[in-house]
Amino acid sequence: MREFSGVSFICRKTQDEDHPRRTLKEMGFPMDVPAVQTHRYDLLRDGLSDKLYETPFMEIGSVCRTYLRFLIQRRDRSAAFHLTLQMLAKFHVTREELQHELEQCGIDALTAEDADTLCDIFVYLIETLLPRQIGDLFVDFGLHPHPAYHVFFSLAAERLGIEVCKDYNDSRCGQLIGSTTAGAVKRILAGQSLQYIYENTCATKKHIHNAVSQLYLYSWETWEEAQLSFDLLQIEDALFSLSRRYHYERQFTIDSINCTFDFAVFEENRIILLIDYLGDERMECNDLFSYDEAMERTGKKKEKCLFAGIPLLQFDIWEFEDSDFFPSEVIRRVLRNPSYVQVHAEIRRQELEEAEAYWNDICDDEEIENQSLDASPPICSEPPSTVETKPESVMTRDKLIQLIEEAMDCIVFTVVGKGYTILVWPDEGISIVEWNQEETKKIYPDARSLVENFKVDCVPLGDLAGEIIITEYC
User: Fold this and answer.
1) Which of 23, 108, 121, 191 is found 20 to 30 A from 423 (Cα to Cα)?
2) Measured distance CA(416)–CA(466) in Å, rounded
3) What's the CA gap between 67 and 443, in Å, rounded?
4) What is the pTM of this model?
5) pLDDT tens, 53-103?
6) Class of residue 75 by CB neighbours under 10 A (exposed 0-12, middle 13-18, buried 19+)
């Protein structure tokens, strides 16, 4: 990929103020296409559209893409124009119609070198900003719309070998398939935080969550090469899933107490929670189970945090050995009630003491002295279920609204034989979708609107509250 220096971007999706739109030249790129005047009533373009209807060239921009491919290949404008006109001759397209189409797109005067540079620019934009479609650059980064940008965006996708959805019945029609999530994976492996990726690319929270899920399937060699921690990424993903009023920073240092923490959580620019992960280097997991000893090795951070009035949540490596452990549950409980930090610490102290006793029993038992000492002790973190189970009282409309308002991640439930998931964290509002039926997804501004307006078999969800069975509540 060709690099461009002196380029600046402003991500509009994280800015409160409305920044003005900018052309490629205004963003700092070395060249741009000339401005064009479009007309609402254009007889020549209308005539061309009629002739190319239901032909391989009916898609908007296909004629201009064909011309630019020939221009880049032959390095001559006249030859490119003649070859394009030959291909369109069987559809009775005239020279005047083709010339007018190229002028309206703003590419008629471009040289082959210009076309190469513009393709390189859009390759750079796709690789750097991870858009699904050209519209993401217009909306998220304020690129001033221009018909030529659509054409070069498509050519850049071709050059990168990215598949484009062509199914007109698919809501993703015209979008690049898989490139945004793949780009997010590369950035995570390069060491960028999930928050940074969200604030500096077109990737949505859903794309970034999908990227994290894909990374869990990568080999350990890939994780080690990227110097990533599986457990730390789980913690970060949990923080990234919090509602919009929270944000976090990695490796945050508080100078007043001379301590660095793996994560700091902020609400309105105020630190409300610090998080540390006690991994191999802090827990010495081969011979240490004592929680108190582990705390001693952290440099008495907890005491310093108490003095500073900030709760410190400490996860240890053994917690993540339990397949039913989800750090998001602990984090959400602490955010609701900061005193849960002490409850969590006491739970871990007891569990590690039980694990130490279990280990000692194995070592002292002569009947199993030949048994491998590599067996892992049965360590649980958190109470048996990390999903909050709600009382099995009869559900009502008002209670359902309250549950949705109090949820911090999702509610999974069944009703009249169908399964649904409610997500409360997306930026655009509260969403509900039927299992394995992505096209049924609906978004509502608040819990009451969802309960009153979402319908199951033509019946409002609120009217079916008594039949709802909640299977997961986070």
Assistant:
1) 191
2) 11
3) 42
4) 0.72
5) 999 999 889 999 999 999 999 999 999 999 999 999 999 999 999 999 999
6) middle
